Fold this protein.
Amino acid sequence: MGNTVPLERRDRLIVTLAAVAPDFDGLGIIGNLVTRGSESPLYWWEEYHHVLGHNLGFALALTIVTLVVAERRLAASLLVLASAHLHFLGDLVGARGPEGYQWPIPYLKPFSDVWNLTWEGQWFMNAWPNFLITGILLALTLYMTWREGFSPLDLLSQKADRALVETIRGRFGDPTVTSRK
């Protein structure tokens, strides 16, 4: 999402983090594991995963923070809002647990408790559609890396990104070089 419009590296990082931020509520599993077997075990995973970060309030909070900190405020904020919603959609259609549990998306929280989204057709996390979508998105990412000259790896290491771009362009040619005939 961060590469769909021209953004500076920092804004692309913000958009990328916003796409995974809804799952920060899954970090409650650490509390569960640390207190497992104690007199007062915590059940943060069961109580808060898909609750704290998977809702309109959280998406709006991410968007407002982006409006304050981003360089291209409007573009980055709209992409953050879209990224959060794309995350929700992905969980809604393809995140059924191995035991068959569907995590509902409490979309209107914290404003209302009335709209918990689920879909009967939700496939399992390890179902073929998730692998197909992942493969398509990876291919698209590699294509954009070849065409644009940078990849999401740029967010972690510019040196590693440069090596990846050079490798891809070395194999498939440099799109910025026009051939003479």
Notes: The two ends are 37 Å apart (CA to CA).
